[in-house]
């Protein structure tokens, strides 16, 4: 969402999604002061509406992130068991056997899959934490608007 703050001799366009990502109350207070001194004070209401909308979507985002975190955690545990199993089976053979080569390839694939799933899990955990920080920031912003 974009807001356009007009002055006597020009205007400023603020991309709220990008501006709010910095999570700086000082910068927000400065923006609020600029809006209140401009010829378009209705931008303050647009910001309030944007923040309310984002806060309403918070629970949905968090529930989705929790669901993915649980799923990826379970899949990580399963892949770790598969990796351990493949390593144990590979250990039964000598390196010169063809069976060892096959199970070594299985170990490599299992490690690669585990690595990918752990990356997805970390990504969702970071999103979960980021949403919590954003909600706290939005609460502070709403206190400053009212």
Summarize the structure.
8% of the residues are buried.
Which SSEs are present, and which pair or pack?
Elements: E1 2-6, E2 11-15, H1 16-21, H2 25-37, H3 43-90, H4 98-145
Antiparallel strand pairs: 1-2
Order of helices and strands: EEHHHH
Describe the sheet with the most strands: 2 strands, antiparallel
Q: In terms of structural class, how would the helical and strand content be classed?
A: mainly alpha
Beta-strand content: 5-15%
Strand order of the largest sheet: 1-2
Low-pLDDT segments, ≥5 res:
none
- This entry's quaternary arrangement is single chain
- The total of beta strands comes to 2
Give the N-terminus to C-terminus distance in angstroms.
Answer: 21 Å
Instruction: State mean pLDDT (0 to 100 scale).
Output: 92
Keywords, separated by commas or semicolons:
single chain, 2 strands, 146 residues, two-stranded antiparallel sheet, rod-shaped
Description:
The chain has helices spanning 16-21, 25-37, 43-90, 98-145; strands at residues 2-6, 11-15. The protein is mainly α. α2 (25-37) packs across α4 and α3 runs antiparallel to α4 (98-145). The protein is rod-shaped. The model has no long low-confidence stretch (mean pLDDT 92).
């Amino acid at each position: 969402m974009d807001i356009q703050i007009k002055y006597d001799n020009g205007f400023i366009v603020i991309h709220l999604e990008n501006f709010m990502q910095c999570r700086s109350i000082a910068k927000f207070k400065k923006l609020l002061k600029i809006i209140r001194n401009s010829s378009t004070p209705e931008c303050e209401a647009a910001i309030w509406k944007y923040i309310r909308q984002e806060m309403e979507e918070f629970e949905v985002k968090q529930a989705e992130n929790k669901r993915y975190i649980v799923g990826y955690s379970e899949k990580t545990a399963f892949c770790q068991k598969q990796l351990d199993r493949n390593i144990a089976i590979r250990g039964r053979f000598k390196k010169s056997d063809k069976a060892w080569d096959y199970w070594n390839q299985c170990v490599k694939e299992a490690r690669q899959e585990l690595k990918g799933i752990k990356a997805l899990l970390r990504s969702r955990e970071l999103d979960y934490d980021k949403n919590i920080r954003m909600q706290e920031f939005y609460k502070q912003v709403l206190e400053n608007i009212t």
